[in-house]
User: Fold this.
Amino acid sequence: MAERQIPSARRFKLDPIWLAGPGILYLILLLIVPAAGLMFLSFRDALGNLSFETYRQMFGAGIYVQVLVNTFSVAIQTTIACLLVGYPLAYWLARMPETRRRVVMWLVLLPFWMSALLKNFAWMVLLSRRGVLSQILTGLGMGGPVDLLYGRGVVVFAMAHTMLPLAALTMLPTLLSIDFGLARAAKTLGASGGQAFWRVVFPLSMPGVAAAGLLVFISSLGFFITPALLGSPRETVIGQLLITQVQQLLNWQLAGAIAVMLLVVTLAICLVYDRAFGISAVSGERSDRNSNGMFARLGRLLIAGLAWATDLLAAVFDKVPGFRRRDWLLTAFCVAVMVMLLVPVLIFVPMAFGSSSFLEFPPRGYSLRWFETYWSSPNWTGATMRSFAIAIVSALLASAISSIAAFGVARSTSRVGNLAFLLFMLPMIIPNIVIAVALFYLFAQIGLVATDAGIALGHTLTALPVVFVIILTTFKSYDWRLDHAAATLGATKTDTIRKVTWPIIKGSVVAAFLFGFLHSFEELTIALFVGGGVRQTLPKQMWDDVLLQVSPTLAAASVIILAVVTIVFVAAERARPR
Assistant:
């Protein structure tokens, strides 16, 4: 009798999304749980009973309402300015040859990775009554010294200057994916240049524009450095209010209520964006949302009006001698924007070598005494060493967590992958000031405030989105057939990873690590709260110097930061795959 074939049991195959589990757990414990705790705290009174008194206090007091209005109006104005200036810059970059674009992108990204604190202090020097711009205006007959600081205009300008690279580089991937041959085809069918751009190119770039607007607006909501340094009391924003409530008044209920307000507005905006484009478009992916919705219909009406206005303006320019060919206008505009981006980064170099006892530009004389003061000061050198150590640890943790999670998300066929992607984007979506306050609230209960470990954990959390997106993009473009081919030739999984997968992805992993390092090295908000005023990182030491004494030692420290950022950034760009 023939032996009966026993069917083999079906092998259970675990979806790779489980690899994102450690990162998701990290985000739950250090972001979602403390943020939720802070939110619940806002609904309690001093005795722990349920109460809405904090919200009545917040909305009943005119000062808090005015601060909320200031915050949202400044954020909206900053977002509009970044989109209006950043879109031409991104479009100009997208039309460049690859080699030249990488060089120009380096010039755009360099000021982005420089501390906002340094750039804003540079504007304080340049725009003050004794600044170079005031001297130029006085020389042109504009009267006495002109003080351009401490107003809404300079706050919006400086915030837009800080956020502009983020806006342009968020729009760039979408513009690069557009086939500009479609615009040329539209012209051959009789469309004008304006009609071809607004009706063909611009609608295809809208996911990138919306993503840039989303990120800039959310980042601006939690921004406090620029209003604190360049604004007047009339420009006080939520971030400054949170610092006062937490660090000076210890009013956790009101701080929680303010954080709840920021979170509700942020999540509402993200929900609207997700309904229109899909949240994955933030990373540059193409959107598959319905193009016949309300947003699309309103957009088409606006585009028709812009196309008509562009054609009218082109007809006027055609009558002006020398303006029939207008390609040079975009180049001139973008070069001027790039010069403006680099000016506040570079002026610290000559000021650091000045002999004056105060910061001024242009500097008087030549001296190395401020570098000597920097290297001989235990406060400055200690803060620098601490920043290096924390940045290395944070980058290692973020790279390890993100590499495993990105592999799982890229290989997953489950819908949970989209949820995991959204969770890893949360530290980028939630305003940084809210994350810092939530971490301070959590760490105060477990003894991690004023510790290097607490700062490193916080920096790892905020660095995760940047590191995760870089590595995920590499895994999504990876040809997994190479691994299958290695397996059919007898390679073990370990050999495949070591000899096939790692050599291909290592450039992106190294670049992600270096960008994580830069993020931590330049981060101020987490260090300001979690450091507790005891553990001084280099940005926190510079913040204290700006507020207390403003010595030229700050310029020497800025040059050292510029050198570190430049070296690390160049290394990261060289490591990234072409």
